[in-house]
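COMPLEX REQUEST
Ligand: protoporphyrin IX containing FE
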Amino acid sequence: MRESTIMKIHYGTALAAVALVAVHILMRMTMNFADSLEYETVLANYKFIPYAIMLELILVLLSVHGFNGLRVILLELKQGRLYEKAVSYGCLAAMFGLIAYGSRTIIMTNMGMV
Amino acid sequence: MAQVSSIADEQSSQSITLRIARYNPEKDNERRFMEFNVPYEKWTTVLEAILDVKKHFDHSVAVRYSCRQATCGSCGMIINGKPRLACFTKISELDSNVVTVEPMNNFPIIRDLAVKFERLFDTHHKIKPYLDRDDTELTSDAKEFMQSPEELEQYIQFANCIKCGLCNSACPTMATDSSFVGPQALAQAYRYVADSRDKGKDSRLKIIDDSHGIWRCHFAGSCSQVCPKGVDPAMGIQLLRGYMLGFRS
Ligand code: HEM
Ligand code: SF4
Ligand code: FES
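STATUS: Structure written out below.
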């Protein structure tokens, strides 16, 4: 992928995350902060589909943004063909790994597995 | 400390300690400093003080210079911690009794204050620093390429670059990314992309749209702070990004 395309995604995910995290924080203000972390509340949030989709989106946006940011840092730290390939594919794999792990929690809750 | 005696000495009432970094990569393990007591006048430049040392005390000090008037871009070095042209920096303006001169950062050292410019010339060459078009104004029947004052205004500031490398020396990305194209070349990419006579915009933007290209600039802005010709490479980089993000065409 062209570097400019990647960076457009990087800036876009950052902006979208600001908007969605703002909604996320507003939703948390509907109750006491400590109550947000109650077991039952967390389960209810995951089962409320529109909110669960938004959390999933934040997960995807920040994973894409964060791991691309990490790729950039690592590319500037050290150079070399093999190293740079490993960094790019490593970050991509870690990104999919984190998204899969986070999605698993949301999906399992919705399927009544917890 | 060595005392430099010179003709200026007899007339001058002021003097400073000039600390010169000495290092020969073929022989030395580390950099060391030699100190000289140098007389100066209000108008004495750092380069003149170094040449004074070479003339009267230690001719082996390695320093590159040519024009002595901020035109050739040869005499860049770190003066009291900041990248500057030695011929364009007066001792009196430094406001210090000690003047320390070191080779530029982010350049391999040849010896003492002289550094290798290969990387700067390579990256400069890479962005095609010339008008890129098929026709020419050199044949006898051709007309010259006309340009309005407004069109000239678009890039003329960036055409003042003397390739001194001070911007590359100040850039934090240059310090860690050995493949980064650097502020000097990026500013020149903008200089040609913004020239109404040039037709090479797309190919030039493609060259800098690389994993070690324009996107590795993180807006530190130190390049523009140190540029002795007011080129403002950081602004050139942001204007170039405008083309790549679709804000300019
Ligand atoms: C939602 C608010 C955020 C905004 C507006 C934002 C914006 C940005 C921007 C504009 C850059 C590019 C900086 C540059 O090129 O110099 C960047 C880089 C980066 N971001 Fe974010 N970001 C946000 C959140 C995050 C989060 C939550 C993470 C961690 C998961 C993160 C990780 C990174 C990393 C690792 C870099 C690369 C470091 C760098 O280039 O300086 N960002 N961010
Ligand atoms: S942009 Fe300024 S600091 Fe950089 S090489 Fe050109 S003249 Fe020197
Ligand atoms: S000697 Fe030419 S720029 Fe300083």
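REMARKS: Residues B 65-68, 70-75, 85, 87 surround FE2/S2 (inorganic) cluster (ligand 3) (CB under 6 Å). The mean pLDDT of chain A is 94.
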